[in-house]
Amino acid sequence: MRATPPMVDMDNLAFRIVDDGCAGVLAFDHGESDEWSGSHVARGEDSARGDQGGRDGPGHRLVELDLAEQLGVTRAAVRAALLDLTGEGLVERIANRGARVRVIPLEEAVQIVECRAALEGLCAAKAAELAQDADRDLLRGLGERMREAVASGDVMAYSKLNQQLHAHIVRLSGQQVAAGLLERLNAQIVRHQFRLSVRPGRPQTSLPEHLGVIVAVCAGDGAAAEKAAREHLASVAEALRRSTEEK
Questions:
Q1: Do 55 and 164 have their domain in common?
Q2: Measured between alpha carbons, how far is 220 from 82 in angstroms, rounded to an integer?
Q3: Smallest Cα–Cα separation from 197: which of 230, 166, 220?
């Protein structure tokens, strides 16, 4: 009698997108780390830099059998994952050709940033209302470390602190719906965000914008926090538009 293949617990199966062109290849984590638990899409700067460890980049075909063998899971699990990632806009399925990593064009990335502005403005306003003393200390500490990173020219450290700041403000807001939407949107534009963050002069431009958000949130001024967050994302969108024109 043929043995039944092991079932994959989809509730504990996380999908990670390794980005080297707005979207990247699939990798699995079986819930061993809280960071990757659940069916979330995660992002990382190493992948945005192209440090893929042999993984495939945008436009590459995603073959179910190959992925199942590589990752040690069933083809059914891979198929389910690809369907989820198609829904996230990170994978596209082409008739008679299967699935491949989707490339998000720069113009679409600009529109995503514009959507982020509305969501992150909401989160900043909520964070200003809800932040406690410990939260304010954490935000001020991040701001100080961002200043130090810019002063020392440590672009990588600044980029990581940038991500942490945005994540902390969303967390403080308690806005779970906005957090989920932002997670999906951010997953699609990792490469664009990273390339912009390391562009010469960009940290010096974005630092005062980030500090403005911190000041407003710590002051408990929801309107000012929302305005500062929206203005920062508008600056990001404008910088992306300029990069489109330069091409």
A1: no
A2: 42
A3: 166
Residue 115's domain is classified under what CATH number?
A: 1.20.120.530
Looking at the structure, tell me whether residues 116 and 192 fall in a common domain.
yes
Look at residue 13 and give its three-state secondary structure: coil
Last residue of a domain, one of 68, 101, 134: 101
Write the DSSP assignment of 51-116 as a string of letters.
--TT---TT-EE-HHHHHHHHTS-HHHHHHHHHHHHHTTSEEEETTTEEEEPPPPHHHHHHHHHHH
Over its length of 247 residues, how does the chain's per-residue pLDDT go in tens digits? Answer: 444 444 333 333 333 333 333 333 344 443 333 332 223 333 333 333 333 333 445 556 777 778 788 878 888 888 788 787 777 777 777 777 777 777 778 888 899 999 999 999 999 999 999 999 999 999 999 999 999 999 999 999 999 999 999 999 999 999 999 999 998 888 778 777 778 877 889 999 999 999 999 999 999 999 999 999 999 999 999 999 887 555 5
